[in-house]
Amino acid sequence: MRSAPAQDLRVGVVGAGQMGADHIQRITRAISGATVSAIVEPDAGRAEAAAAAAPGARPFASLDDALAADALDAVIIATPGQFHEPVLVPALEAGLPTLCEKPLTPDSASSLRILELEQKLSRPHIQLGFMRRFDDEYRTLRELIAGGEAGELLMLHGVHRNPSVPDSYTQSMLITDSVVHEFDVMPWLAGSPVRSVEVKYPRRNALAPERLREPILVLIELENGVLVDVEMNVSVRFGYQVGTEAVFQSGVARIGEPSGLQRWSDAAFSIAEHTTFKTRFARAYDAQVQAWVDAVRDGTLVAGPNAWDGYLVALACEAGVQALETRGPVPVAPATRPAFYA
Ligand SMILES: NC(=O)c1ccc[n+]([C@@H]2O[C@H](COP(=O)([O-])OP(=O)(O)OC[C@H]3O[C@@H](n4cnc5c(N)ncnc54)[C@H](O)[C@@H]3O)[C@@H](O)[C@H]2O)c1
Ligand SMILES: O[C@H]1[C@H](O)[C@@H](O)[C@H](O)[C@@H](O)[C@H]1O
After folding, report:
1. Distances in whole angstroms, Cα of residue 7 to Cα of each of 27, 63, 73, 225, 275
2. What is the pLDDT of residues 301-314, one digit of tens each?
């Protein structure tokens, strides 16, 4: 990093839309050891609203301008995925510790360019925003799998259901915007990378926007033989659900069950459900950002998924997008992991 932060870490946020604004509020309200010092956001209204939530933060037209003004020690990138690389490059060139929202970049070729640039530094500087790794239930499930007390893990069944998606959401985004999380978290849970990806189409949901053929069932084979299936379903209307069932030799474990208000009325029992990832993963986002801030302050710089993980996910997404159009499994063949990312 450029200079050791004397007191609070000065965080710049690039992109103050849905996630960027959320991170700005989070740092101001819930994170210790950091303040938002710079906001880069081309939309004037959003920039103003974000600045109102972060007293003392200065607006800048670009990350380069914020760097020239020595206005930040570290950066969060929350622009849309296709604009990550143009921000990651100056951030790496300046040696800035970076928390980059998913995806690292939209394809594996650009991810490899980022890996090459990062390897010019003394150590990894990029942490990726795969927040599920900071969710208590996911962490507990991972420990259970690693502990082996229920025997070997055989299968993982995932559900990923959104109530609806914006007009800008396209067919390939089922993979690149949504299943992207499973491509990170399932290998992390099972301790094994993706070998191949296949997509199956069940009956189409007539409630889906006309441009989308969904839900889809994504079959992910891991190198260790564990088979993962993910129901990706984005027009369910009733709520936001993300869950996983792990099937072991002698047991089953499940996470992501509804845990909201329980209610008995009219001879029926109900549990309040989430409607957005913002509440479902609120604690995970907080834990992710706090862990990152702590790591930057103690010089570790990265406390979660790194750019290599982002590259692996980019490769799996490429296979997944191809699998949307083809029958049968599409193989995933990563480059050799450099010792830098060991
Ligand atoms: N981890 C999660 O659960 C999660 C959830 C939603 C989004 N995301 C990720 O967060 C990122 C942002 O998504 P979003 O939903 O907040 O998008 P958004 O469209 O709501 O916000 C993006 C913002 O970036 C701004 N922007 C665009 N180009 C810019 C540039 N070059 N410099 C500075 N600002 C720029 C836009 O004006 C906009 O305000 C994406 O990478 C997305 O995949 C992650
Ligand atoms: O961009 C969002 C976000 O990444 C959520 O975490 C995911 O559950 C949604 O499917 C996706 O559309």
Report:
1. 15, 22, 11, 48, 38
2. 999 999 999 999 99
